[in-house]
Amino acid sequence: MTKRLGGIYAAYVVFGVIFFGPVLFMLWSSLRNNVDITGSLFNLASPLTLENFTGLFERFDFARYIGNSFVVAGGSTLLGLVLGAPAAYVIVRRKLAALGFLTLLARMAPGVLFVLPLFVLSIRVGGPDSLAVNYTLLIVAHLIITLPLCIWLLVPFFEEIPASIEESTLIDGANGWQRFTRIALPLALPGLSVALTLSFVFSWNYFLFALALANEQTLPLTVIAFNFIGQGSNDFGGLMAASTLISAPALLLTIFAQRWLVRGITGGAVK
């Protein structure tokens, strides 16, 4: 029994190093000078500094880029939930599995397939010259990521809700929208927390659409990170600091929503 527990704990340590090692290395490198990073990876005696972080805000309008990421990721996530929750409910109650599969096709296709049509659309509607239009295009483009994800994460939760519960409200004259908003939606709150968290993380980390569609005023963090790598010079310290700031919101959201996340994932796994 002792040997078995020892093997389990050893496996935990190994997997912990595999999963958290790169994150810790990123945090540590973000506090080191570029010379120390390239000179010796494991020199624990190298001095720590905050220059990489302060340099981000001195060299770039980094606060704007952070705001842009929140606008695009937050907007696409909320819009994905607003559209995805009713869509998932209708798919379950009307048994429209084929329609659900069609929404999944957009998520299965590589994002590069959508870049050229979206770029042409952006030019036609004046996206490069209009801040509002550019934000709108980026949010709508990220719906390709968030909407199918929200639908397919919420379908199992609506399937678990017995139709008899909703049918009992017909006695009180509840219509379809009232049954959805007052019965089905509150019972599916764990699923909504899962859909919100995962949709935000996926949208926050996605850079392809922003790389093709964003103008100088709407660039998000993920695109700006590429400015630290170039031919002949690489600012690894700045890149690690930028990566830390890019990772922080998604990581904090996941930690904050962990209780609802675990509840939602395990709840949706039981049929």
In short:
Residues 66-257 form the ABC transmembrane type-1 domain. This protein is mainly α and 271 residues long.
Label this structure with key terms.
271 residues; mainly alpha; two-stranded antiparallel sheet; globular; MetI-like fold
What is the secondary structure topology, with strand pairs?
Layout: H1 2-30, H2 34-39, H3 51-59, H4 62-93, H5 97-108, H6 112-124, H7 131-160, H8 163-167, H9 176-187, H10 189-205, H11 208-213, H12 221-224, E1 229-230, E2 233-234, H13 236-256, H14 258-269
Antiparallel strand pairs: 1-2
Helix pairs in contact: 1-13, 3-13, 4-7, 4-10, 5-7, 7-10, 10-13, 10-14
Transmembrane segments: 7-28, 70-92, 104-123, 135-155, 187-213, 236-257
Domain ABC transmembrane type-1: 66-257
Keywords: Cell membrane, Membrane, Transmembrane, Transmembrane helix, Transport
Could you describe the 3D structure shown?
- The chain has 14 helices and 2 strands; from the N terminus they run ααααααααααααββαα.
- It is mainly α and 271 residues long.
- It has a domain at 62-158 and 188-269: Orthogonal Bundle (MetI-like fold), CATH 1.10.3720.
- A hairpin with a 2-residue loop joins β1 and β2 (233-234).
- α1 crosses α13 (236-256), α4 runs parallel beside α7 and α7 runs antiparallel to α10 (189-205).
- The longest helix has 32 residues, at 62-93.
- The model has no long low-confidence stretch (mean pLDDT 85).
- Belongs to the binding-protein-dependent transport system permease family.
- Residues 66-257 form the ABC transmembrane type-1 domain.
- This is Carbohydrate ABC transporter permease.
